[in-house]
Amino acid sequence: MATLPNPLPTLATDPSGRSLGLQLPPGRVIDEVLWYADGPASLSGWTALQRAPRKAGLLPLLIDAGGELGGPENWELLPEETSYPGDHDAEEVLAEAWDEWPGLAPAGTHGADPEARAAEAVAALLEAAPRSADHRLALVPARRSADVPAAFGWTGPLNYEPDVARLCAVLRSWEDRFGARVIALSYARLTVSVAAPPTTPAEAEALAVEHFAFCPDESGEDLQAYAKRLVGAHTWSFWWD
After folding, report:
1. Reading across the β-sheet that carries 34-37, which strands appear in turn?
2. What are the 10-residue block averages of pLDDT along the chain, 241 residues in total?
3. Nearest to 39 by CA among 108, 127, 132, 122
């Protein structure tokens, strides 16, 4: 795999991002794996980053810095120990975690633009968050939204999966089948927006199997009850203990 150029060292010397065609609010580069804003996130800030950074090889992310561990400067980031998502097969990753694996769920029918749906989901997160001031914007050097967690060595699922790139392979599959976008991360939670969610109970139940294999810690309910909540759901959230 060819290594993509990392534009973050440029932001370390040019905090405004103008040399990359960006107009960034005050922020800082952390370990040359992500840029992190100093102040609270806003929807207008997200949409500005969503439109601008692709040409620079950067994708936007909302980071919840609440909780006792705070923001990513206090997290254990292991990019050097993370493999490449494209080296893994999503179905193989999920099948390893589920006895009598039934196969991948059918793709959804795209009815909305994935980027527009991502912005709507971010707006909903910021409006509903009890500690909205703890949410900060970030930029990560990645070409695909699904690769964002691996790109900066996020270790939220470390107790379950030591190589987050394997889970990113599943996110790639969801990106292709359901228009999913990684929009938010905290120390151990991942949230994606979904442009084409399942529309029938049968489709949702097939997808629920994938979710349970992807993140066994998330749901305390049975598969059928969980599946009901996936019908038409435009946001999926996963938490690892």
Report:
1. 27-30, 34-37, 135-141, 58-64, 181-185, 189-193, 235-239
2. 76 90 92 94 91 80 87 94 97 95 92 92 86 85 96 96 97 97 96 97 96 83 92 96 84
3. 132
C-beta of residue 55 within 8 angstroms of C-beta of residue 32 = no
Specify the DSSP class assigned to residue 144.
S
DSSP state of 235: E
Contact 165, 159 (CB under 8 A): no
- Closest residue by Cα to residue 90 from 98, 100, 78: 98
- Cβ-Cβ contacts under 8 Å for 158 (sequence gap 6 or more): 76, 164, 240
Name residue 183's amino acid: I
What is the distance of C-alpha 225 from the center of its chain? 24
Residues with Cβ < 8 Å from 123, sequence gap 6 or more?
43
Bridge partners (DSSP) of residue 191 are 184, 237
